[in-house]
Design goal:
The chain is mostly helical. Helix content is 70%, strand content 4%. Residues 35-213 form the CAAX prenyl protease 1 N-terminal domain.
Length: 435
C-alpha cells in the first residue's frame, strides 16, 4: 500500500487546482460585476469626447447590450466551473473513461471514443447558453440574422469538418505519443505546428467557403483605392473578397486570412454598407499596420514557443501518476510488469486541456497588454498611410454599429480587452504622446 508521501504530489495538485479554480472564479465574478456597475453608472451620459458624434440612444443601447452579455457571462462562468469540477475532482472523466475501457478495452479506438464522447457531452452542455446568446440576446438587440435552418446547417457542417479533420489529427497525435518514445512531445509539437501552418493556407480556399460565400470585390473605385494602399505599403494579396456576414449577424468586420502567397483580404458585406470608401481604406490600413510591424509573425512565433513549452510539460506530466490521481482520474497502470497497461494518452490530453486554462488566466493581462500595444501601433501606421479622421470616424461607426460600450471598467479591460477602449484609441490618434 502506498505511503502518505506517495500521495503528497497528488494532494498538492488537488489543493492547487481547487484553489486556482476558486480564486479564478471569484476574480472573474468580481471583474464582471465591476464591469456591470461601471457601465450602468455611465449609461445616462455620452462621454464628452463623443457627445457630438454618438447619440444618447446608441450609447444606452451599447450599455444595455454590454450589461446583458456580462450577466449571461456570470451564468456561463458558474456553469463552466461546475462542469470543470465535475469532469475532474468529482470523477466525471474517470467514470467516462472506465465505461469506455469496459466496453472497448484499451487501445486507439477507446482513446478516440473518449475524446469524441468528451467533445460531444461538452458541446451539449454548452448548447443551451449558446442558443440563448444567439437567438435571444443577439436577437433582442437586432444583431442576429441567423435562422434555425442556417444554424442547423452550420452545426452539421461543423460536425462533419471536425470529424474529417479532427479525428485523423487526434489519432496521429495519439500514435506519436505511444510510438515515438520519451521525446514524443517534440515530434507531436513539430506535427502540430506543421498542421497549423498548413491550415493557414488551406482554410481560406477550402474550409471557409463551406460556411460563407466569398465574392470578388466589385466596387472598382474602392478596389483601386485599396490596391493603391497595399502597393504603397508593399503588401500583396491573392484577392479582395466580400463575405456574406449579414446572413448571420449585423456585426461588421474586415480581416486578412491565409499565409504566404495565399493571403487574401476579406470584407464583411455589412462593413462595406456601413463605412464610406475612405473609412474602409483606413480600416484596411490598420490591418496592414499589423503586418508592417510584424505582429502576425510575432504572434506565430509566440504560439510556437508557448505550444512547445506546453507539449514539453505535457510530456512530463503524462508519466506522473499523481497528475491523474490528483485530478480525480485513475490511470491505467499495471502492477504486473509482464502485463501491458492500457494507454493513458487521451486522458493526459484531456486533463491538460482542462486544467491549464485555470492557471494561465492569471497571466492573461500580460498578453492582452501586448495585444493592445500592437493595436496602438497599427492605428499609428494607419494614420500615417491613410486619413486619421477617416480611421477615427470608422472606429466610432463600428463601435456604434456593434454596440460596443464606450465606458468599460478599466480593470476589466486589463483582463479581457485585446483592443484598447475607444477613448484611449482616439486620444492616442489625435495625440501620439498621450499615455
Amino acid at each position: 500500500m502506498p505511503t502518505s508521501d506517495a500521495f503528497s504530489p497528488a494532494l498538492a495538485l488537488t489543493l492547487a487546482f481547487a484553489a486556482a479554480l476558486t480564486l479564478g472564479l471569484v476574480l472573474k465574478f468580481w471583474l464582471a460585476t465591476r464591469q456591470i456597475r461601471h457601465v450602468a453608472r455611465h449609461r445616462s451620459d455620452v462621454p464628452a469626447p463623443f457627445a457630438e458624434r454618438i447619440a444618447l440612444a446608441a450609447h444606452q443601447k451599447a450599455a444595455d447590450y454590454t450589461i446583458t452579455k456580462a450577466r449571461l457571462g456570470l451564468l456561463e462562468m458558474a456553469l463552466g466551473a461546475a462542469v470543470l469540477l465535475g469532469w475532474t475532482l468529482l470523477g466525471g472523466l474517470d467514470v467516462l473513461n472506465q465505461a469506455l475501457l469496459s466496453a472497448l478495452g484499451g487501445g486507439m479506438w477507446q482513446q478516440l471514443a473518449l475524446l469524441t464522447a468528451f467533445a460531444a457531452i461538452s458541446g451539449l452542455i454548452d448548447l443551451p447558453l449558446s442558443l440563448y446568446q444567439t437567438f435571444v440576446v443577439e436577437e433582442r438587440f437586432g444583431f442576429n440574422k441567423m435562422t434555425w435552418r442556417l444554424w442547423l446547417a452550420d452545426a452539421l457542417k461543423g460536425l462533419l469538418v471536425g470529424a474529417l479533420i479532427g479525428l485523423p489529427i487526434a489519432a496521429l497525435i495519439l500514435w506519436i505519443m505511444g510510438a515515438t518514445g520519451p521525446l514524443w512531445w517534440l515530434w507531436a509539437w513539430c506535427f502540430w505546428m506543421g498542421f497549423n501552418l498548413l491550415l493557414m493556407v488551406v482554410y481560406p480556399t477550402f474550409i471557409a467557403p463551406l460556411f460563407n460565400k466569398f465574392q470578388p470585390l466589385e466596387d472598382e473605385s474602392l478596389k483601386a483605392r485599396v490596391t493603391a494602399l497595399m502597393q504603397r505599403c508593399g503588401f500583396s494579396a491573392k484577392g479582395l473578397f466580400v463575405m456574406d456576414g449579414s446572413r448571420r449577424s449585423a456585426h461588421a468586420n474586415a480581416y486578412f486570412t491565409g499565409f504566404g502567397a495565399a493571403k487574401r483580404v476579406v470584407f464583411y458585406d455589412t462593413l462595406l454598407r456601413q463605412l464610406a470608401p475612405g473609412e474602409v481604406e483606413a480600416v484596411l490600413a490598420h490591418e496592414l499596420g499589423h503586418f508592417k510591424h510584424r505582429h502576425i509573425i510575432q504572434r506565430i512565433v509566440t504560439m510556437f514557443a508557448l505550444s512547445l513549452a506546453g507539449f514539453a510539460l505535457l510530456g512530463w506530466l503524462s508519466n506522473q501518476v499523481w497528475f491523474y490521481t490528483g485530478l480525480g482520474v485513475r490511470p491505467s497502470i499495471s502492477l504486473d510488469p509482464t502485463l501491458a497497461a492500457a494507454p493513458n494518452d487521451a486522458l493526459a490530453l484531456l486533463l491538460f486541456m482542462l486544467v491549464v486554462p485555470v492557471f494561465t488566466f492569471f497571466i492573461s493581462p500580460l498578453f492582452l497588454q501586448l495585444s493592445r500595444r500592437h493595436e496602438f501601433q497599427a492605428d499609428a501606421y494607419a494614420v500615417a498611410q491613410a486619413s486619421g479622421a477617416d480611421l477615427s470616424s470608422a472606429l466610432l461607426k463600428l463601435y456604434e454599429d456593434n454596440a460596443s460600450t464606450l465606458t468599460p471598467d478599466p480593470v476589466y479591460v486589463k483582463f479581457y480587452y485585446s483592443h484598447p477602449p475607444a477613448t484611449e484609441r482616439l486620444a492616442r490618434m489625435h495625440n501620439p504622446s498621450h499615455p
